[in-house]
Amino acid sequence: MERITYQRADSVESAMKGGARPDAAFLAGGTSLVDLMKIEVLKPLHVVDVSRLDLRKIDVQQNGVRIDAMATNTEVAEHAGVKKRLPVLAEAILAGASPQLRNVATVGGNLLQRTRCAYYRDLATPCNKREPGSGCSAIGGWTRMHAILGTSDACIAAHPSDMCVALAALEAMVHVRGPNGERDIPIADLHLLPETHPEREFSLAPGELITSVFVPFSAQGARSRYVKVRDRASYAFALVSCAAAVDVQGGEIRAARLALGGVGTKPWRVPEAEQALVGKPAQRASFQRAADLLLAGARTQKDNAFKVELGKRTVVRALSLASEAS
Amino acid sequence: METTCIGPAPDLSFQLAPPLEGASELGGTTTVLAFCAAFSGSVTEELRAELRGLGAKLVAIHPRGGLLIAPDDEPRPLAPAPHLWEAYEVRRPERGGPGITVLLVDPQRRIRFRREGDALLPVEQALLKALRSAVASTRGIGRRELIVNAIALALAAALLEACATEQRKGGDSPAAGGSGLVEVPLIVNGQKRTLRIEPRVTLLDALRENLGLTGTKKGCDMGQCGACTVLVDGKRVDSCLALAVQHEGRSITTIEGLADGDELHPMQQAFLDHDAFQCGYCTPGQILSAIGLLKEGGGRNDDEIREGMSGNICRCGAYPNIVDAVRSAKGRV
């Protein structure tokens, strides 16, 4: 690990100031940043510790839950209000990482989790995300864990987070504070597609700090499920995952939200797939049609073509479970 | 490379312990004198090798005796030498004195270096580290005077790193904006310990390398195997992905802190009773994780135990017995 200077922020203001340095990084739980610093993929010179900021509340309000950025993944997943009103969020968090990691990993940090692409983590291989313009080793390489949606000729790295997939289906708003004031970012706009600049991953400006996430309540959110398919029973990144939220009344779908993990360069949503479910019977044929639309844009590599069919089956399964919960 | 001469060294004679017996007098060689609370001699051979490169002797003196380590002789135990503590004006650790006092006496019997502190590394390791860096820095230097200076400087540097000085810091945030050593007070297994470390040091490395608590294991060192699991304020975490500096004031529990004297913690006993390991490398992490799981209220059935222990990999595959052990410890943790 490179030498660093360390600053423990005692206020959001001092954090923003320290974090505005071009060589700075915010440190919360450390489970992603410290890992990447140790293998020298990320080399901040100045680390701003935000983990002790007073940003730890989980506040159930009338229209939704406001989750402060430093709430841990465990705290969110175990929160009674979250489990009851937003079950997909609790399920997704518990499907990710291990208890040790969830005990320290924060919501703010999880939103900014970096890809697990093996080439991004391997300094010996070219990677456009790590070293812009150097090339993509994944394309034509070992691609079982890589994305098939939202890819570009520069990058096919999959987005790694389970929590973000649930938050995408729940249409969460990410609240940030920065040198130019406060703003809300819809979660769909927080993560950027790789396109020609895979090194640009988030729509955040230097010094901008995520302070909370607002997750709105909805009829479909209350009946939502998360299905994750992986190479072992627990503690593995997704091959495919699906967050499904459906509002079914009298056997007919009133509203639906779907997001995919493990297959996209960001949490993957297709509004047409959700629209196609509205007014349809909550049955397999309807689910299959939505699944086809969700995976329609897939571009596969030699090791991950199986993810198209696996993805569709995962969508159907998640929709079936969510409908049963209705 | 100048070090000052502090003053003449008092008498350096002492008795060898039985069965060797007899008096010995040090002189004519460079001598490192280490007064300490205890000295196990665990790295004697390595110390001897380094001393050979320096042409120096090491005398480790503790309240119950000591050890004379010369490059070309077998290490010789020393009889208790209260007169040396007095002659060198060293306050004894058992009476509130510093944990370690190191002096360097040159061949002309002049004290060239003196430093006190509370060693965070075990004394043996601190001295070994100091001598190693002295050997490295004297490579190619033939002149004895320069070698003495180099040893003094290396001792100073190594002990500065290994010891918490008496100074207390002011201010709130540790060394805001500094990349040098920072002081990080922690509660480790119920005892207050103060680290002097770089901010980039992980909690795992601080426990193992700075505090000598090697029961916490380094497996993958990337948060994937759980061998480094410790409890922080009662919650299980992977210490390899945590910076020690973030944990100022936190309470850390490692495997060394579980037993009550000779009485094992119920989870340790359960692992023994159920033969829940083979090679044992993952076991400290498994035990801490299992304690964390039960404290969280998890592990209500075998499936929950398996899922709750998924962050701890056992490459020997002792999983069935680990599940048995955790199940059996329920209600006793």
Please give the structural blueprint:
The complex is a heterodimer of chains A (326) and B (333).
Chain A: E1 5-8, H1 12-19, E2 24-27, H2 33-38, E3 46-49, E4 58-60, E5 64-68, H3 73-77, H4 80-85, H5 87-94, H6 99-104, H7 107-111, H8 163-169, E6 173-178, E7 181-186, H9 187-190, E8 209-216, H10 219-222, E9 224-230, E10 238-249, E11 252-261, H11 271-275, H12 284-294, H13 306-325
Helix pairs in contact in A: 5-8, 12-13
Chain B: E1 7-8, E2 13-15, E3 23-25, E4 30-36, H1 44-54, E5 56-62, E6 65-69, E7 76-78, H2 82-87, E8 100-105, E9 110-119, H3 123-138, H4 144-162, E10 163-164, E11 182-188, E12 191-197, H5 203-210, E13 229-232, E14 235-238, E15 251-253, H6 266-273, H7 283-295, H8 302-308, H9 319-329
Parallel strand pairs in B: 4-5, 11-15
Antiparallel strand pairs in B: 1-9, 2-3, 4-8, 5-6, 6-7, 8-9, 9-10, 11-12, 13-14, 13-15
Helix pairs in contact in B: 1-3, 3-4, 6-9
Secondary structure category of chain A = alpha+beta
Give the proportion of residues in helices of chain A.
Answer: 25-40%
User: What is the fold-level CATH name, i.e. the topology of the domain at 224-325 in chain A?
Assistant: Enolase-like, domain 1
> Considering DSSP H and I runs of 4 or more, what fraction of the residues of chain B is helical?
25-40%
Descriptive notes:
The complex is a heterodimer of chains A (326) and B (333). By secondary structure, chain A is of the alpha+beta class. Chain A has 13 helices and 11 strands. In chain A, α2 (33-38) links the parallel β2 and β3 (46-49). In chain A, α5 runs antiparallel to α8 and α12 (284-294) crosses α13 (306-325). With 333 residues, chain B is an alpha+beta fold. Chain B has 3 domains: 7-164, Glutaredoxin, CATH 3.40.30.10; 182-257, Ubiquitin-like (UB roll), CATH 3.10.20.30; 266-329, DNA polymerase, domain 1. Chain B has helices at residues 44-54, 82-87, 123-138, 144-162, 203-210, 266-273, 283-295, 302-308, 319-329, and strands at 7-8, 13-15, 23-25, 30-36, 56-62, 65-69, 76-78, 100-105, 110-119, 163-164, 182-188, 191-197, 229-232, 235-238, 251-253. Chain B starts with 6 loop residues before the first strand and ends with a helix.
